[in-house]
Specification:
elongated, 9 helices, 20 strands, Rossmann fold, single chain, OB fold (Dihydrolipoamide Acetyltransferase, E2P), five-stranded antiparallel β-sheet, alpha+beta, 2 domains, six-stranded mixed β-sheet, binds adenosine-5'-diphosphate
Length: about 375
């Protein structure tokens, strides 16, 4: 089957006077597994429903395989959608649920039987064909919902929070299954989730949506390492944010002043080109780093004020800690700003105590500067 692209060009949508999607531009490559990630109410489902044809856009264009389908009714779009609650027919067997779309399309009997058999095999449910949805586990129901959608061989597969009804262990297992199935089928797939771990572990690329606006698009690594703004930084993982002001802007580096008087020199590559362009001396910024990029060391007088070019070293006090097995997350108060530090736990090691005086060490190469 031909793999197709999906493109949103300047797409906007309102419910009454409320703008829900604002100028969305996205290009999803043929065969890609693409996640739409955002908090509840950010517009993810609305965008998915728009692609299916259940919602209509106010302005813009929606293209599949380069053809504008904005005016094509839902039933002619050749797009399959798996709903959050699976929407299986409870009074029909697994076989009949899966066959339903083919019966509707008047597929000949022999071909229908073959396709249902093939798809049930693909999702590992051959032995469950005569059961009813109520006799299946959550994971099995989810596979029936997938089978029922892919049996009609859609050009594009849309998944609306497909794993949210499953418990945590099953979710982890099913996301690998889902990805393996998508790879076997090669169908361009758009997957909506509010769970950043789910998006990061499965997606080829993802878009972060906030209040109907696409904040950033990229691979999981791009978004984690180079978030474009504070929202993406906080939504994709945890981020330390220290308030600072810009003291000096030079060709290849800038100097910032942290609260408490400490200065820090970072390469201009730590700043996005658009922010760098707008940056002025005296501007307020955030000095950001992931908790695992900061380390803790014993408090010593000799290391006080010893910030070097390559590292920011600050004294602090442990105010709380969470032992998580493989690591401990410390919350350290440094000059009235709280810093999270993730330390890998070694066998037999005693974690720092609450109220312990420590030094945090942040290599400047790990710093990103973001707008406040
Ligand atoms: P998400 O899927 O990210 O949780 P939705 O796309 O469901 O977000 O909703 C986006 C916004 O649109 C929310 O503020 C929601 O309240 C609003 N909304 C969704 N459906 C309707 C509707 N039928 N009428 C009016 N507002 C709606």
């Amino acid at each position: 089957m031909k793999k197709v692209s999906v493109e949103c060009r300047d797409v906007s949508l309102s419910y009454g006077a409320t703008d829900v999607l604002k100028n969305i531009n996205l290009t999803i490559a043929p065969g890609e597994f693409f996640a739409l990630l955002g908090p509840s109410g950010s517009g993810k489902s609305t965008l998915l429903r728009l692609i299916t044809g259940f919602n209509s856009l106010k302005t813009g264009q929606l293209l599949v395989d380069g053809l504008d389908i904005s005016q094509v009714p839902a039933w002619q779009r050749d797009i399959g959608m798996v709903f959050q609650n699976y929407a299986l027919w409870p009074h029909m067997t697994v076989w009949d649920n899966v066959a339903f779309g083919l019966v509707e399309r008047r597929v000949a009997r022999a071909a229908l039987r073959q396709r249902v058999q093939d798809v049930l095999e693909l999702v590992g449910l051959t032995d469950y064909a005569q059961r009813y949805p109520g006799q299946l586990s959550g994971g099995q129901q989810q596979r029936v919902a997938l089978a029922r959608t892919v049996v009609i061989e859609p050009k594009v597969l849309l998944l609306d929070e497909p794993l949210s009804n499953l418990d945590k262990n099953l979710r982890t297992q099913m996301r690998q299954e889902l990805l393996a199935l998508q790879r076997r089928l090669g169908i361009t797939t758009i997957f909506v989730t509010h769970d950043q771990e789910e998006a990061m572990t499965t997606a080829d690329r993802m878009a972060v949506l906030h209040q109907g606006v696409v904040q950033q698009v990229g691979t999981p690594v791009d978004l984690f390492d180079t978030p474009i703004n504070r929202f993406v930084a906080e939504f994709v993982g945890s981020m330390n944010k220290l308030n600072a002001t810009v003291q000096e802007i030079l060709a290849d580096h800038l100097v910032v002043n942290l609260i408490g008087g400490m200065t820090c020199t970072v390469a201009t590559t730590a700043v996005s080109p658009s922010l760098l362009n707008a940056l002025r001396v005296g501007a307020s910024v955030l000095v950001c780093a992931r908790p695992h990029q900061v380390s803790l060391q014993q408090h010593t007088q000799s290391s006080l004020g010893a910030s070097q070019v390559s590292s920011l070293v600050l004294p602090g006090t442990v105010v709380a800690k969470e032992f998580m097995g493989q690591q401990t997350r410390y919350f350290v108060l440094c000059n009235s700003q709280q810093v999270m530090v993730d330390q890998t736990h070694q066998l037999g090691e005693t974690p720092y105590a609450v109220n312990a005086h420590v030094m945090i060490n942040l290599p400047t190469s790990n710093i990103k500067i973001l707008d406040i």
